[in-house]
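Hey L., structure's done. Input below.
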Amino acid sequence: MPQSVRNIAILAHVDAGKTTLSERILFAAGEVRRPGKVEEGLATMDYMPEEKERGITIESGVAHFEWKNIWFNFIDTPGHVDFGAEVDMALSAVEGAVLVVSAASGVETQTVAAFKKLREAGVRTILFVNKLDNPDYSLDETLINIEEILGVRPVLMTLPQYENGRMSGVLDVLSQSRLVHSETGEEVVDDGWNVEDGWDGSQELKKHYVEASEFASNFDDEVLKLAVDGKRVPPKTLLRGLKALANSDDYALCYAGSAMEGYGVRSLVTALSFFLPEPPVFADGELGQVIRLRYFKGVGEISLFRSHADMERKAWPAGFEFSRLKANLLQPVDEIRSGDIYAMRTPFETELGQVIYADGTSPSPQAEAASDDDMPTSIRDKYQPLLQTRVECLGSEDYHHVEKSLNTLGRMDPSFRVQKDDGGFWYLHTVGEVQLDVLLARLKREFGCEVKAGSPEVRWQERLCRNVGPVENTFQLGPHKISIKLSATPLEGDAHDIRLSAEFLETAPREILAGVRSALLESTEVGILGKGALVGVCFEVHEFTWTEGALPPMIKKACADAVTKLIKPADVELYEPIMELSLECPVNFAGLVTGDIQARDGKVKEIGGDGKIHFLKADVPLRKIFGYATGVRSISKGTALYSMKLLGYKPATV
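Output:
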């Protein structure tokens, strides 16, 4: 019988201990001799120098381990908001996820955002309450916090134990056993402890077993009958009921412990083998799908690839190679299995989300775009870059190398975009400052590009405020001529997509329609005022003629010039990005922090705290809070923790 495969992701707010837990899981499974520490820059999953320097996850790390005859692909996702697209791509290829909640801070902004992503993606989720090695942090308060904010009832499956103020083990609810550390630091069952002997924690463990049975009785008739009759539910029967419970939106299995100290990890990994669904059944004839792109110096570009087929090397399409990816090392394989994840090299460039067929072919992105009614949408459309930074070469001889490298990075990160300027430089559009810093560092380290980068600026939105056109434009080069008649109308509400109405072009060659779509999209990305992208527009092509043999650059030129003639600066309004800032700090800094936010035109909309920690939420214009990290660090003497997310756009007042 072939070995089962499960793909899992791990998500959390920054500093909740996500990568540390990842290392502990690999240690528990015997994949590493000792767990690397994030603060020492030794985490196995964080292989990039920028990750080791910053102590954060940037690219989704991939590792493999075996547990109870199941092969796991383990994806450690970024917690920093600048790299949310990495999380989205990881969730497209997993059966389940661990959501880490810090007992020190409870459910935080990015915890909520991660949980929402998991729900939207339909990924089965198991909770892990971390940092309970500190007995001052309350498990009960964290569970209440989870229920109140995430809206699910946590079903506790492990209980921490303490001796002399230090965590000494965990009690496992399902197996009714105690786990402690062996001499080598591994979690093992304490053979000298028995729940029936009445030892410390026995009554509480029995209570939680009964509680788990009561919750499971909502999903299993046999468990319900035993509970009604007042009989004990056997572990195997309870396991079946909990499997059904784990698939519910109202409950979440919850494990508690300490990733740093290595307690509760073994029970969590066992839960992953019990409670996750099997991979889906994929369509016949599909080889698999690209879920991530990476670039290794000396190797080139590779694709992280989820296989949809079982196939031996001799049947692989010509020019394809598959390997296991361990940190930044490639280990060749001789066969691929359905549902498994590999590093793939192909004779052609791949795109995120691209499906490849068993014969090595793949539908053209341009052809797919041409068959849509509106402009093509993708994961890139979920992320709106908030900053733009001008970048130029130090030497003109490097231009083509820099351009190719930037385009490669743009394909690798779906939330990063490159805009080429006719003046010989580029604008990098990024979600945030951290993403920008990392991209510039990678451009130099991985691609060997020396560039000069300007100061990042806030990227606004431009919106059409009236109907315009139609206008006519003609472009001729030699015997070839292209003519277009174009008008535009603003979309209602806060819609920010670009649409195209050109029914008569549906019968034209696909490359013609795709060229028009692409040219209009590129024109709106530049904007009219140069402050940001033009959004929320429907273009209507009334007439379009071309001579046979006209090249795509000619179509682009004709359309771009038509947009310039059609939309003037007076036809657009500027909208600025508004951020929702969530911040907590010691109460003695509350006045200074709040005053600083109000001085930045921020509107405080929520205040709370427990007498020791002050919490607030505020809406602040991005232009006023740009570079906030340095300021708040100085005001709070480094004690404030904050996160920001895009709330929306409003008409600019400047």
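Residues 510-526 form the longest helix (17 residues). Residues 196 and 386 are 60 Å apart (CA to CA).

-- N.
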